């Protein structure tokens, strides 16, 4: 049965290991001060970590010290309670990332859960996480290769399977892109990079990429417009080349109560102008798409502006009229 002394020692070893992981070098005196023990005790605890398989190296210098290096094999892993729960949550979420690690993540979660104390296991079991939608699968090797190219700032060459391109079309030369960010969004992985030939930023789905070897030359990384890759990618998906806003924005008044509009307004702005009438400021990637999206409310619509939205409604009405007449022939 563990004694109070062994419990204190185990807790101190865990604290020592956590400290060694957060910075490269530690002096013996600073570790002793942080742990509230003598430097002699620190030396003994370091020896215990080495016996467990952790490659703690001595650092030469005026004060001496310690450094946790990478080893040749995986030593036993020690986590505090918050780290263990965070790891379990991350492993459950990993199943829905599409990164090709679903089976490995499930096995890792089972391993972690098995060695957890019962109180932590109960907390983890209460986490009922369901990944909505189906993630697009990507070869793990592709993600690793792209991440490596981003870190080393090396140009990548790849073939790209575009769904709009006919299958019997002449093959294109490999694309050459300077990779900057690998982003997971909506169950898919995207590479954001600079295309030097087009002198513009481009976004590619990783599941459509077939990497070529060898990779291209090194380059000097640059910052995406605005500095926030998440906002940049969101803007591109809205059809905007600048800020994260829809390129086509219009204002209408709907003959509907605000409670019937608000749940379906997306990122639009709603305001009650009178009982049963609601003002809606909304946006889309084109005027035709915006008019069609507003028409789905199945109510009388008063267009406040701009003129492009009125023209889009007129064009939509013409198409609807022709479609209706075609069905009577």
TrEMBL record:
List GO molecular-function terms, semicolon-separated: DNA binding; DNA-binding transcription factor activity
The entry's keywords: DNA-binding, Transcription, Transcription regulation
Domain HTH deoR-type span(s) in chain numbering: 9-64
Q: Which residues form the signal peptide?
A: none
Q: Mind telling me which InterPro entries this protein's record contains?
A: CBASS_pafABC_assoc_protein (IPR051534), DeoR_HTH (IPR001034), HTH_11 (IPR013196), PafC-like (IPR028349), Tscrpt_reg_HTH_DeoR_CS (IPR018356), WH-like_DNA-bd_sf (IPR036388), WH_DNA-bd_sf (IPR036390), WYL_dom (IPR026881)
Q: Extract the Gene3D superfamilies matched here.
A: Winged helix-like DNA-binding domain superfamily/Winged helix DNA-binding domain (1.10.10.10)
PANTHER family cross-referenced by the UniProt entry: PROTEIN PAFB (PTHR34580:SF3), PTHR34580
Q: Which protein are we looking at?
A: Transcriptional regulator
Species of origin: Amycolatopsis vastitatis
